[in-house]
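Obj.: predict assembly geometry.
Materials: sequence records (below).
Method: joint structure prediction, all chains together.
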Amino acid sequence: MSEKDEQIAQRVQNGETQAFGDLIERYEGKIYRYARRFLQEESDIADLTQEVFIKAYINIQGFDVHRKFSPWLYRIAHNEFINAIKRRKKEPLPLFATDVFLPKTLIEMPDDSFDRTELKNKLDKCLNRLDMKYREPIILYYFEELSYQDIADILHIPTATIGTRLKRGREKLKTIYEQE
Amino acid sequence: MNKNNFELNPIKEKVLERIKNQRLKMKPRWHFILKTILMVGGALIILLTLIYLISLIGFVLHQSGLTFLPAFGWPGLMILLSSLPWFILAGIIIFIGVLGLLVRHHPISYRKPLIYSLLAILILITIGGLISLEFGFHQNVWQRINKGPMEFLYRSAMPHPENVHIGLIEGMTEEEITIINDLNEKISVSVSSETRFPRGMGFQVGDQVIIWGRRDNGSIRAFGMGRFDNRFDSQLKRPSLPNSQIHPRINR
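Observations (raw structure tokens):
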């Protein structure tokens, strides 16, 4: 059985710094893909991906080994990408998301009744035209295949809001797809 | 090796090389422990400040007799609202916002809608404020402070609503009641059939009362009147009344 991410992170914390290479190997592709989909028009995706791992290494002593490693790393990536957007000012950042304020009367559950691969292909074509607010949960859920709770931990928004954003994001993507 | 890994392999090599050459150093564990301590400490200080401010509002409202006013209905409620120490309330709203942002870093908070965190903070500071009032915290501070920023804070926070008077009953007749206020002024209060007594009329000499009515020189035409249970009893200096002046209760 392969070693868990959290166990490798603990080894890095205890001084086995070269073990950090294993974590890079496991996540470089994922973080690169996440960056490419999230920052569609950026040219320095590889540099940003590298920066995520540098930040992760610098802050690894702050990682709680009793929690999951992947949301922690994706959170660093999320912050790094948001900062990149701020620096380039290519896209407006939402100042305050009102959908995190009130409880949801209906919690949206993922709709898995359709062909996920086909949906991914369709989504990938239209993602760049979708608001960041909806784009990111869609990338993390459909492409990175993370759970609602993991996405909540990455974006620091309520779990129920993830469902709402996924539903609205799908609807918006459908409209975009039909227009094309 | 897929295309992505082929493209990305330099990332692993570059990062590991920088680690090896000591050009990349992880922050020590104490840095994160200190950060957590500062955040928790900051949140605690803000929470205690909020409890202090909310109980201060309760204290000054009671001291000035404003908590009695809603018993007079809508007009009384309007006076209460217009006399609230708004600068303290604004401070409370700002501190709640800051505390909300601080606790938002914790999964318990961000996994739930923001309104829950804000409600939890409000409930916590209200309970804390009530406990603080119950133990007479502000009464003790009020009695001890002489000058300086604390006295300024209490004096600025204390509302002085127009047409609201507090005093001790010194004498009573069928038509008039005489009170002595905290400045030792003797004021006659005229009571008519229009005067409201939301807490009943069984007054007697020595009772501390709150009167709502316009003062004209040495007399007040009472629109409303009630016994004022000032459990803090620090703002008013109780004048001593001779026993001979005690009259029977008014029966209206």
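Conclusions so far: The radius of gyration of chain B is 29 Å.
To do: check interface contacts against the pulldown list.
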